[in-house]
Amino acid sequence: MDIIGLLPQAGGLIWIVVAFVVALSIIVTIHEYGHYIVGRWSGIHADVFSLGFGPVIYKRTDKRGTQWQIAALPFGGYVKFAGDANAASGKDTDAMQAVEADAVALRRTMHGAPLWARAATVAAGPVFNFVFSILLFAALFLGSGTTRDQLTVGELRALPTQVNELQPGDEILQIAGKPVPLISDDSFGPFLSSVPKTEQLDYRVMRDGAELDVQGPQIFPPLVVGLVPRSAAYQADLDVGDVIVGVNGTPISVFEQLKTNVEASDGAPVALTVWRDGAILDKTLSAKRVDEPQADGSYTTEWRIGIVGGMAFELATEPMGVWRALSDGVIETGGIITGSLSGLSHIITGAISTCNLSGPIGIAQTSGAMASQGTQSFLRFIAVLSTAVGLLNLFPIPALDGGHLVFYAYEAVMKRPPSDGALRILMGIGLTLVLTLMIFALGNDIFCP
C-alpha cells in the first residue's frame, strides 16, 4: 500500500502543508548541509546550523561547537558561520575586529578565510541540490527500470472494454495488421499516430514463443494516467485510473478525441462522462490556457484540462544499470535547468504569461497533489524542486549564493573585496529584490486563474 498517496486524502489542507514542509525541509537540509560540510572541510567554523527560522524549539551543540537547531517556522534554513552577522552571511564587524590579531581564529571565520574556501563553501549549497536531484532521479530510474525496446505488455489497466485478450509479457508484433517498430526507432511515434481510432484493435503478439492473434483495447484510450497539479481536472476530483468515455454527450474511445474536444472548447465548460471502477460519473470543468514548452525551446499556448494520458497497459521494463541511471539523472536535472531558464527568459520578454511563476501557495498545492499520486510522484517532485532551489540560489542577486559568488569574482579580479559600505547597500538591494519576487509570486498564487 502506498501510504504517501493516502495522506492528502486523510486531511485535506493539513496534508498539503505536511507534504510541502516535508519536501522543503529535505531540500533545505541538503542545501545547507552542502554549505556546512564544505565550509568545515575548508577550515571555516559553523556557529549555527538551523532548519527553519524564528523561535528555536530544539537545539544541541556538537563537539566542534556548532549548534544544531530546529526552529518554529519550517520554511527555510541557514548556516551561520563564524564572523557572520546574520543568516545572509553579512559581516559581523565587531566579531571580526575581535579576532583580527589572532591568525588562527581569523582563518576560522567566513570573512577571514581564503577566497577559494569562501567560494567553495557558498557554491556547495546549490551544487549539493543538483547532486541530490541527480541521485534521486537515478534511484527512481533504478527502481522502475528501463522500458523494453520491443513494445511489451506489463501490467494491464482496468478499462471499460468488451474484449481484452492481451496478457502481461505479450510482445506486440503487429497492431491492426501493421508491424510495430522498436520503441527506440524514430518511426515509433508516427506509427502510434497511425493506429486506427477504434475502441477495439487486432493485435499479433508473441506469447511463450508462439505468435497469436488476439483482440485488445485501443492502445491510447482516454485514460487518466496522471493529473497536473492545480489543473481543472485535478480540481474537479478526477482520479488516476478514470476513463473518459464521453465529451458533451458524445461517446469517445481515443485520447486524441478528448484532446481535440478540449482544445476546441475555447475555455467553455466541458461535460465529461467518466468511467471509474465500473461506475459512471458526470463531471463538468473548464479548460485553462497553458503555456507549453516545445522541443525547439519555444512555447505554444493551448487549452488544457490537465489530464496525462497513456497506453492501455503499463510498458514492461527491464533492469537499468547504475551508470545508465546516473547519466539519465544528469540529463533529467540538466533538462530542468535549461527548461527553467528558458521559461524565465520567455516570462521576462513577455512571450508567456507571468502566471507561470508560482509562489509558496502554488508550490504547497503541487506538493500535496504529487503526494496524492504516490511515492514516486512525490519523490520526483522533490528532485525537481531541489534543482529549482539550487538554480534560484545561483542567480547573481546579492543575499543569494550567486550574489556572494559575484562579490568573490570581483575580489579575485580587483585583488580586494567590495567595501563594507557597498556590501551593505548591495545586500539591502538584494533582499528587496528577493522580497519583491516572493510577493509577486504569492500574488500569482492568489490572483492568476
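The record above closes out task 2.4. Task 2.5 opens with a second protein, given below.
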Amino acid sequence: MSTITTEELSATTLLRFATAGSVDDGKSTLVGRLLHDSKSVLTDQLEAVQRVSADRGQDAPDLALLTDGLRAEREQGITIDVAYRYFATPRRRFILADTPGHVQYTRNMVTGASTAELTVVLVDARNGVVEQTRRHAAIAALLRVPHVALAVNKMDLVEYKETVFAAIAEEFTAYASELGVPEITAIPISALAGDNVVEPSANMDWYGGPTFLEHLESVPVAHDLSHCHARLPVQYVIRPQNAEHPDYRGYAGQIAAGTFRVGESVTVLPSGRATKISGIDLLGKSVRTAWTTQSVTLLLEDDIDISRGDLIVPSKDAPATTQDIEATVCHVADAPLTVGHRVLLKHGTRTVKAIVKDIPSRLTLDDLSLHPHPGQLVANDIGRVKIRTAEPLPVDSYADSRRTGSFILIDPADGTTLTAGMVGESFAAPEPVKDGTDDDGWDF
C-alpha cells in the first residue's frame, strides 16, 4: 500500500469555499467575524472599521464593513464580480469566494462556486429556508460541490432556540439531499455576537457539533482529485535546443486530475497516438510521480506531434472524443445565447469553433421545473444545450471530473465569455430531444 507523502499532505491544506445567502442574511457580518476572530485582519483595517463605526455612533465595530466596500462597488455598478479573500489558520489555508446574494447575480455564484470544495449557504433563523436558499442549494448541486455547510445565522434573534434551528436544518437537508448534494452540515451561529463562528457558544449548549471555523478546518478536501481519471492539458511545448539540452522535448501543463507515473502508458488526444512517460520534471527536479494541481513537464519515449490544447491521459483510462456535446450551462453574458449561435468553445487549453444546435430546456431553479425549447438563454439562465464542434474534443462528464468536464463558450467577435458549461446530465436532466434540421453554415 502506498503511503501519503509530505507533499501530498500539504496539497490538502488549502480549502476553497464560497459563501452564498440572501440579501440581509448577515453574510458580510459572518465573513467579517470569521476574519476578525481568526486574527486574519490587519491592524490598520481594524482601526479603519472602528473609526467608521464610531463615526456612525456604534458602540462596537461593525465587522460587516470589512467586506461591505467590495459589495458596495457591485451595487454601484463599478464592478459585478466575486470578491475573494485569502486567510490562514495554523491548520489550513483558505480562499474564500464571497458571492452576491441578489437573484440577478446568479451567474456570480456559479463563478465563485465552480472551483469550491465547500459552499456555505447562509440562512436567517427568523425567515428560515426561502426561495433564494433553494436556488443556492440547487446551484451547489449543479456544480457538484462536494460539501455544503448550512449556517443558520441570527440565532440570538430567536432566543437561541434549538427547535428553530432543527426545523430549518431538517427542511434544508431534505431539499438538498433530493438534489444529490453528497454532504450537508448544519451549524447554528450568530455572526454579530460571535456564537459558534470561531469560538463555541455558551448560549447553545444543546449543540454539540463543530464551530464554523472548526468545520472549515476539518472538512476533507482530498476527496477524489488525486484518485480520479488522470488528465494533463498541454499548455506549452518546451524545446530549449541549446548545447546543454540539444534533444529535450517536454510537454508542460498543470495536472487537472489524477496521478501520472514514470513508465506509465499514455495516449495523446485527440490524435490517439500512444507512448510511455520517460520522465517527469517538477520545479527543476526529476520525480517519479506527480499528481493533481502540480505544474509539471512530461517527457515521452516517442517523438509525437503534440501541441498546446492536446490532452495527455492514461491509455487504459482515455475518454472518448466527440464533436457533439450536451451540457448544462449557465449563461453569464448580457446578450442572449440562441439556437444557431456561432461561438468558440474553450475546453482545458484547447479552443475550437462550435455552433449551438439546440437548447432543449431552461431550468427554473425555484421549483426545478423545465421550460422546454425556450429558443434562447438570457443572463443568469441555466439550461440544457446541444453543441456541435468543428473538431473532436476529449471531454469527460462533469460528474466524473469538474476540471475536464467543464468548458466556456466565447464570442468570436470580441472574446467575451458567454456561457459556462458542464458536460453530461444535471440533477434534473430533461428527456433527450432529437436534433432538428442542420443550420446553414458552420455545419461540421
